[in-house]
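Sequence only, no structure available. Ideas?
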Amino acid sequence: MKTLGRILMILLAGIGGAVLVVGVVLWQKEDARRDEVREQLASAPQASRPLASPDHYYSYVDGTEYGYQPALSEEDRQTGKIGAELVMFRYHGIRNGRIQLGTNLGGGISQVVDCTEPCDTVRIRLFSGWREIKRDYLALTPGMIVGMAMSDARRGKMKLHLNRDGKYVFFGETRAEATLFGSAKEVGGI
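Reply:
I predicted one. C-alpha coordinates follow.
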Protein backbone atom coordinates (compact mmCIF):
# COMPACT_ATOMS: atom_id res chain seq x y z
CA MET A 1 0.00 0.00 0.00
CA LYS A 2 2.87 2.34 0.80
CA THR A 3 4.30 1.74 -2.65
CA LEU A 4 0.97 2.50 -4.32
CA GLY A 5 0.73 5.72 -2.31
CA ARG A 6 4.23 6.74 -3.39
CA ILE A 7 3.42 5.98 -7.01
CA LEU A 8 0.26 8.08 -6.81
CA MET A 9 2.19 10.96 -5.21
CA ILE A 10 4.83 10.82 -7.94
CA LEU A 11 2.14 10.74 -10.65
CA LEU A 12 0.29 13.66 -9.07
CA ALA A 13 3.49 15.62 -8.70
CA GLY A 14 4.29 14.88 -12.35
CA ILE A 15 0.82 15.95 -13.46
CA GLY A 16 1.02 19.06 -11.28
CA GLY A 17 4.41 19.88 -12.73
CA ALA A 18 3.08 19.45 -16.27
CA VAL A 19 0.12 21.70 -15.48
CA LEU A 20 2.50 24.25 -13.98
CA VAL A 21 4.74 24.16 -17.07
CA VAL A 22 1.74 24.52 -19.41
CA GLY A 23 0.41 27.40 -17.27
CA VAL A 24 3.76 29.23 -17.39
CA VAL A 25 3.98 28.82 -21.18
CA LEU A 26 0.43 30.11 -21.69
CA TRP A 27 1.07 33.04 -19.35
CA GLN A 28 4.22 33.97 -21.29
CA LYS A 29 2.33 33.82 -24.61
CA GLU A 30 -0.47 36.03 -23.20
CA ASP A 31 2.10 38.49 -21.85
CA ALA A 32 3.80 38.65 -25.27
CA ARG A 33 0.41 39.25 -26.95
CA ARG A 34 -0.33 42.09 -24.50
CA ASP A 35 3.01 43.71 -25.35
CA GLU A 36 2.25 43.38 -29.09
CA VAL A 37 -1.13 45.07 -28.66
CA ARG A 38 0.44 47.88 -26.58
CA GLU A 39 3.00 48.51 -29.35
CA GLN A 40 0.27 48.62 -32.02
CA LEU A 41 -1.74 51.12 -29.98
CA ALA A 42 1.32 53.28 -29.36
CA SER A 43 2.17 53.42 -33.09
CA ALA A 44 -1.42 54.10 -34.27
CA PRO A 45 -2.03 57.58 -35.74
CA GLN A 46 -3.41 60.00 -33.17
CA ALA A 47 -5.77 62.91 -33.80
CA SER A 48 -3.88 66.17 -33.99
CA ARG A 49 -6.61 67.85 -31.93
CA PRO A 50 -9.63 66.59 -30.01
CA LEU A 51 -12.63 65.81 -32.20
CA ALA A 52 -15.13 68.66 -32.30
CA SER A 53 -18.44 68.02 -30.61
CA PRO A 54 -21.62 68.79 -32.51
CA ASP A 55 -22.91 72.31 -32.11
CA HIS A 56 -26.31 70.99 -31.01
CA TYR A 57 -27.67 68.41 -28.56
CA TYR A 58 -30.33 66.67 -30.68
CA SER A 59 -29.45 63.31 -32.16
CA TYR A 60 -32.18 63.07 -34.81
CA VAL A 61 -34.18 65.44 -37.01
CA ASP A 62 -37.50 64.62 -38.68
CA GLY A 63 -38.62 67.70 -40.59
CA THR A 64 -38.98 70.32 -37.84
CA GLU A 65 -39.05 67.83 -34.96
CA TYR A 66 -35.83 67.31 -33.03
CA GLY A 67 -35.08 64.10 -31.14
CA TYR A 68 -33.06 63.90 -27.93
CA GLN A 69 -31.65 60.61 -26.64
CA PRO A 70 -32.36 59.93 -22.97
CA ALA A 71 -30.03 57.75 -20.93
CA LEU A 72 -31.14 54.21 -20.17
CA SER A 73 -32.43 53.64 -16.67
CA GLU A 74 -31.06 50.82 -14.55
CA GLU A 75 -34.39 49.02 -14.99
CA ASP A 76 -34.08 49.33 -18.79
CA ARG A 77 -30.60 47.81 -18.65
CA GLN A 78 -31.76 44.93 -16.46
CA THR A 79 -34.55 44.08 -18.90
CA GLY A 80 -32.06 44.04 -21.78
CA LYS A 81 -33.24 47.22 -23.47
CA ILE A 82 -30.52 48.61 -25.74
CA GLY A 83 -31.91 52.10 -26.35
CA ALA A 84 -34.49 54.53 -25.06
CA GLU A 85 -37.16 56.18 -27.20
CA LEU A 86 -36.22 59.65 -28.39
CA VAL A 87 -37.88 62.68 -26.82
CA MET A 88 -39.11 64.86 -29.71
CA PHE A 89 -39.49 68.67 -29.58
CA ARG A 90 -40.85 71.25 -32.02
CA TYR A 91 -39.63 74.82 -31.94
CA HIS A 92 -42.53 77.33 -31.79
CA GLY A 93 -40.41 80.49 -31.72
CA ILE A 94 -39.77 83.49 -29.47
CA ARG A 95 -42.45 86.02 -28.61
CA ASN A 96 -42.27 88.77 -25.99
CA GLY A 97 -38.97 87.29 -24.79
CA ARG A 98 -40.49 83.84 -24.22
CA ILE A 99 -38.84 80.89 -26.04
CA GLN A 100 -41.27 78.05 -26.72
CA LEU A 101 -41.01 74.36 -27.59
CA GLY A 102 -43.77 71.80 -27.94
CA THR A 103 -44.35 68.07 -28.15
CA ASN A 104 -47.36 66.25 -29.52
CA LEU A 105 -48.37 63.59 -26.99
CA GLY A 106 -51.17 62.22 -29.20
CA GLY A 107 -54.91 62.22 -28.68
CA GLY A 108 -55.13 66.00 -29.12
CA ILE A 109 -52.78 66.62 -26.17
CA SER A 110 -49.79 68.93 -26.57
CA GLN A 111 -47.06 69.68 -24.08
CA VAL A 112 -45.64 73.20 -24.31
CA VAL A 113 -42.39 74.17 -22.60
CA ASP A 114 -41.23 77.76 -22.45
CA CYS A 115 -38.87 80.07 -20.61
CA THR A 116 -37.41 83.55 -20.58
CA GLU A 117 -33.71 84.37 -20.31
CA PRO A 118 -31.67 83.09 -18.55
CA CYS A 119 -33.90 79.99 -18.90
CA ASP A 120 -32.89 78.39 -15.61
CA THR A 121 -36.55 77.49 -14.96
CA VAL A 122 -39.11 76.31 -17.52
CA ARG A 123 -42.88 76.45 -17.50
CA ILE A 124 -44.50 73.21 -18.66
CA ARG A 125 -48.13 73.30 -19.80
CA LEU A 126 -50.44 70.60 -21.11
CA PHE A 127 -53.07 71.55 -23.66
CA SER A 128 -56.10 69.63 -24.81
CA GLY A 129 -56.74 71.21 -28.17
CA TRP A 130 -56.30 74.92 -27.46
CA ARG A 131 -57.28 74.72 -23.78
CA GLU A 132 -54.61 74.60 -21.08
CA ILE A 133 -55.34 71.77 -18.64
CA LYS A 134 -52.23 71.70 -16.46
CA ARG A 135 -49.28 73.94 -15.58
CA ASP A 136 -46.02 73.13 -13.77
CA TYR A 137 -42.62 74.75 -13.29
CA LEU A 138 -39.28 73.00 -13.35
CA ALA A 139 -35.80 74.23 -12.38
CA LEU A 140 -33.29 73.08 -14.99
CA THR A 141 -30.17 71.19 -13.98
CA PRO A 142 -27.26 70.10 -16.22
CA GLY A 143 -28.00 67.07 -18.36
CA MET A 144 -31.79 67.49 -18.46
CA ILE A 145 -33.16 66.84 -21.94
CA VAL A 146 -35.54 69.79 -21.80
CA GLY A 147 -32.60 72.04 -20.91
CA MET A 148 -30.61 70.75 -23.87
CA ALA A 149 -33.57 71.36 -26.19
CA MET A 150 -34.00 74.88 -24.82
CA SER A 151 -30.29 75.52 -25.34
CA ASP A 152 -30.57 74.43 -28.99
CA ALA A 153 -33.61 76.70 -29.48
CA ARG A 154 -31.93 79.68 -27.81
CA ARG A 155 -28.83 79.27 -30.00
CA GLY A 156 -30.85 79.09 -33.23
CA LYS A 157 -30.20 75.39 -33.92
CA MET A 158 -33.87 74.56 -34.66
CA LYS A 159 -36.21 75.60 -37.48
CA LEU A 160 -39.71 76.85 -36.72
CA HIS A 161 -42.43 74.22 -36.83
CA LEU A 162 -45.41 74.61 -39.15
CA ASN A 163 -48.80 73.07 -38.40
CA ARG A 164 -50.79 71.11 -41.01
CA ASP A 165 -52.26 74.35 -42.37
CA GLY A 166 -48.81 75.82 -42.99
CA LYS A 167 -49.07 78.23 -40.03
CA TYR A 168 -46.68 78.83 -37.17
CA VAL A 169 -48.26 78.11 -33.78
CA PHE A 170 -47.33 79.91 -30.57
CA PHE A 171 -49.28 79.06 -27.43
CA GLY A 172 -50.23 82.29 -25.66
CA GLU A 173 -50.25 83.35 -22.04
CA THR A 174 -53.93 82.89 -21.34
CA ARG A 175 -55.34 79.46 -20.76
CA ALA A 176 -57.63 79.46 -23.80
CA GLU A 177 -55.43 81.23 -26.31
CA ALA A 178 -53.23 79.85 -29.04
CA THR A 179 -52.17 82.12 -31.86
CA LEU A 180 -51.58 81.14 -35.48
CA PHE A 181 -49.10 83.25 -37.41
CA GLY A 182 -48.54 83.44 -41.13
CA SER A 183 -44.84 84.27 -41.12
CA ALA A 184 -41.76 83.25 -39.21
CA LYS A 185 -40.95 86.89 -38.51
CA GLU A 186 -44.10 87.23 -36.38
CA VAL A 187 -42.85 84.57 -33.91
CA GLY A 188 -39.22 85.58 -33.89
CA GLY A 189 -38.15 82.76 -36.19
CA ILE A 190 -34.92 82.51 -38.06
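Helices lie at 2-43, 74-78, 145-154.
Hope that gets you unstuck.
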